[in-house]
Amino acid sequence: MRLQQLALFIAYAYSFFLIFETDQVAAGTTTGRTEVTGNQGKGNVLPEPPYCGGNNEEITLEPTLLTDPYTWMALLSYTNENGDDEFLCGGNLINQRYVLTVAHCVTNNLANKKLSKIRLGEYKLGEEKECKNGECNEKPLDLNIESIIAHPDYNSRSGHNDIALIRLAANVNFTDSIQPICLPLPETRVNLTGGEILTVAGWDPPQGNAKVKSHARATIVEHTDCAKEFQSHLKPILTSQICALGEVSKDTCGGDSANPLMRKVSKDHSDNWYLEGMSSLGYRCSSENFPVVYTRVADYVDWIQQIIKE
């Protein structure tokens, strides 16, 4: 009888240990860089609120020194023939393994430069560390690329279906400065109407020696009106594209394609950003008089989910 009682006690104690250990892992207990782990957007699924699109209390463990509300924005680094690197395009982290960008950044020959790295966690370009009152944020991460998947119907002449996925060489851990953005899934998709105000983000022109991530308002342009604007440029505008006018006297493009056009949703005491579009075409970046064309992300969610599940 005593042996049976002892065996039951050992089994109970071991079960309690496993539960405790699992809870500690799920909580993301780490040293150094603050990390968030778990099933909030692994490499083969898309995260949903509250695990995407914002610095929610449930996923933000410590406040960053320099507040960055757009922690999903990526930079695409290209290497030229001399071995020098330059950031020429942008992208958006959508889960632990994939960055969403535009196809023209990964399929066309960008002046004999090869896409080599993806940078995440960047806030101010030109400064190795961002510091305030003697304390510094974590350095940004430069990540290797495993594969690039451009949309099979991408047309470089028309700019249609200008979207691509970049699979990172390894999963990235979410931190205070690296988190994914939400995508407009069928149940959260909305019809954008003319005059609606969204937000576009990018890196401003240099302030001193650095470019700083910033944002501006973007006003949605009705599809028929936008199509007329682009007639003279022989660029037919499809419903899978979004047109928006930039904010007066603000430039958030910084030379980068795939800058995010975002919609903020407030629900259940949480604010989350959704990626509605990525900058694709535009002759006067962030102009208040001529629209920029964005790839409409909602039209490609099925394709995205198909690719990341493979």
Automatic annotation (TrEMBL):
Listed InterPro entries: Peptidase_S1_PA, Peptidase_S1_PA_chymotrypsin, Peptidase_S1A, Ser/Thr_Proteases_Immune/Dev, Trypsin_dom
Swiss-Prot/TrEMBL keywords: Calcium, Disulfide bond, Glycoprotein, Signal, Zymogen
Biological process per Gene Ontology, one example term: proteolysis
Tagged with keyword Calcium: yes
GO molecular function: serine-type endopeptidase activity
Keyword Disulfide bond included in the entry's annotation: yes
All copies of domain Peptidase S1, residue ranges: 51-309
Signal peptide: 1-27
Family recorded in the similarity comment: Belongs to the peptidase S1 family. CLIP subfamily.
Protein name, entry field: Peptidase S1 domain-containing protein
Organism per entry: Glossina palpalis gambiensis
